[in-house]
Amino acid sequence: MPGTPDPVLGSQFVTHAIAVAVSLVSVATVVLLRERFEHVNGRSLALGALYGSTAIAVWYLARVVTDALADSFSGPLGATIGVVALGFVLLVALFLGVARLYATRGLIVPLLALFAITELVWWSFLHVRAETDALGMFVMLAPFFAAGVLVLAALEYIARRLWKRLGRGGDSSRSPT
Q1: Mean pLDDT along residues 63-74
Q2: What is the mean pLDDT of residues 15-32?
Q3: In principle, which of 34, 74, 134, 171 could form an S-S bond with 124, CB 3.0–4.6 Å?
Q4: Buried b or exposed e, range 141-170, using 16+ CB within 10 angstroms
Q5: What's the number of CA atoms in the CB half-sphere (13 Å) around residue 91?
Q6: For the whole model, what pTM was predicted?
Q7: What is the C-alpha separation between 97 and 114, in angstroms, rounded?
């Protein structure tokens, strides 16, 4: 069917399995290396760059192997390089933003969002010959992803604050001794 993306790995199941595995590794990295994300420094930037560059490399290699790179962008080379660079920066910012929310506030919901976004990004990057290229779509949708992560983080933060406030003095289930 015209416009339907083809899975590079030959199977939707394998594509999802790889995307889920990468998502789990991404979230586990944030959880296990939590203290490295408390401050923006060389280590945290390196981990963010690894996240972003790996995703961009997968996008690129999927198109080179299937001879679909020319289909991805038909505009000038400078615009293509700009979209790739912006995609990289947005991926790094998303990863580091979620990592900082977890490291400094202990927020869990942004980790779930990171899992979902990473799975979507890798799944789409491992597909070729769609009507719109996956990297271009990510660049357009990334601000909405970031806004969603921030809204979810704010809701979790508010819910935790309310839970603490209600839990301190309002527990009537305890029997007086």
Answers
A1: 80
A2: 96
A3: 134
A4: ebeebbeebeebbeebeeeeeeeeeeeeee
A5: 30
A6: 0.87
A7: 10
